[in-house]
Structure formats: C-alpha cells, structure tokens
Specification:
Layout: H1 3-14, E1 17-20, H2 26-37, E2 42-46, H3 49-59, E3 67-69, H4 77-88, H5 95-102, H6 105-114, E4 120-123, H7 129-140, E5 150-160, E6 163-170, H8 180-197, E7 203-207, H9 218-233, E8 238-243, H10 245-249, H11 251-257, E9 269-271, H12 275-288, E10 292-299, E11 305-307, H13 314-331
Parallel strand pairs: 1-2, 1-4, 2-3, 4-11, 6-9, 7-8, 7-9
Antiparallel strand pairs: 5-6, 5-10
Amino acid sequence: MNILETLKERARKVNGTIVLPEAFDKRTLKAAASIVSEKLAKVVLLGDPAKICADAKKLGLDLTGVSVIDPVTSTHLPHYAQSFYNKRKEKGITAAEALTTVEQNLFFGACMVKLRQADGMVAGAANTTADVLRAALQVVGVQPGLKTVSSTFIMVVPDFLGEDRVFLFADCAVVPNPTSEQLADIAISTAETRKAIIGDEPKVALLSFSTMGSAQHELVEKVTAAKAILDERKAAFDYDGELQLDAAIVPSIAKSKAPNSKVAGIANTLIFPDLQAGNIGYKLVQRMAKAEAIGPIIQGLAAPVCDLSRGCSAEDIANTAVLVLLMADKKQ
C-alpha cells in the first residue's frame, strides 16, 4: 500500500504554500527543491537569501520557484511584530521584545501561518520539539474548543487480518499523562486529523486494560470519564470505550467482549491512555508488524505546524509538508 502517493495527489490539488524556516539545514533545502519539483506546493524558505543561494549551489539544487524571505529585512516584519505584541502583551512582553522574537525564523514562520501568508509550517530538523511548539503555541495558538496540543502517527499495517489497514495512534509523542479532559481533546483532534488526511470516517477506540467494566481501577475510570466528556460535547464521530486493544480491532473478540459497541472490532483510530502506552505501542507495531509509521503529526493547533525528528531525512520533511497541506485544506 503506497499511501503517500495517494496523499501527494490530494495535496497537489490544494495548491498551498508551505513555509520551511530551517533553510540553513541542507535537508530542508533538498526538501524544498523536491516539493517544488513534484509540484506538491509552493515553498517559502526563511533566511539570508545570499547564503541560501550559495548553499543550494554547493548541493547542486535547483531552487527555481522557491521564495526566500529574510525575516530581519522583510517588509512584513513590523506587521507580524505588532500582531504578536497584541497577542502576548498581557503576558508582559514589550513591543521591542515582540520585534526581536518575530525576527527569529520559527516565530516569523508561525506568523506567516497565523496571518494566512502560508498554509502551514514544517520545522524541527534542526530545532527541538519544545522550540517548535513554543513558537506554534505563542503565535498560532490552540484550536478553538480545545485546550490540548497532541500528536498522532499514521500506522500503515500490512496484512492485518488478511488486508492492509491504516490506523491512527494517539498520543505517542506529546502529553505524558493526559487527564480525562485531555484524552477527550486528543480523541477529537485525532478524529479530525483522520478525516483531513486519510479522508474516511474515524472509528475511535479509547483504549484500556479493561473492556466495558471488566476491571475496576482508577486508570480505567480515567478512560470512562473521557468517554463521558465526549458524550457531553456531542462529538460528531463514532467512539467507544473503555476497550482493550483486541476488542477494539478484532471483530471476533469484539462480538464476545463488546457486542453492542458500534466501534469495537472495527476501530481505525486508537487513543492510548498515556504516553508510555502510546509510544511503546506504535514502536511495537512498527518494528514487529513491519508497519510504516508516518509522523508524529502535531494536532490541536488553530493552524497546522508540524514538528520533525532531528534525525529526519529530506524525504521526511517533504512528506510531512504533504500532511500539513491536507490538514490546512480541511481547516479552510
């Protein structure tokens, strides 16, 4: 199953713009050239134009069609700085501090997304997750109606019960020990991510070591409380829990453990009770089931900003840009 080729075709139709703030990194330059050559999106690189041009020449890259902006000299800088100051002045930031902050590539790129000069931003090849999320949260902010930024992985699992399947696993990278309210936020965000990227209807399972009251424990109660919160919010997708993993994804087991559930046995979106379970779970499936893990995808922001592993390849950056484009298109 080559899901990425399908997603690339959809991304081309978006005709969007991606900002890549780490133009000093050769992987980013290679990704920019690839994105433009494959006609996936328009690309904006941030940094010193002369240095970027020289670096691209050394690498033998053709950046024709790629826009380059130096935040420090950009005519947009005063507007971005004022916007950032207006958003953060109650936190004690001064106008001078806002200007200095927005001159930084990550913040300038986030301002482009916030002010719709770009559809999304991809960073993290050379910056930490904390730095990327700090810029995203301070500039873009959290999606209205949510309080939690989280992550998901697309897991392409070959030959699962006789067919290739695509699951979403969350949260595997951001929230260590989510509360019930945070679990509900994660479920909502992941359902939206599935609709935006995969394009089908999410069947969300809130996972636990218990199925429908088979065990009593405060850890189980956290999951059942998350379901109750989804009920209160009238979440517009199919969900259920608490469910053990086998009851969530194996139809024959679902019939005996949760016969009245509209999700059990057919779940395609798995919400893990904490980060330990989620991180271990996706890596087990990736390594032992030889699944393709695509992500992490940052979700819950008001506009898409995605983080990368600092060990990522140029191809990873380009592929993440595709995901960001599809998320942006859904938010329009």
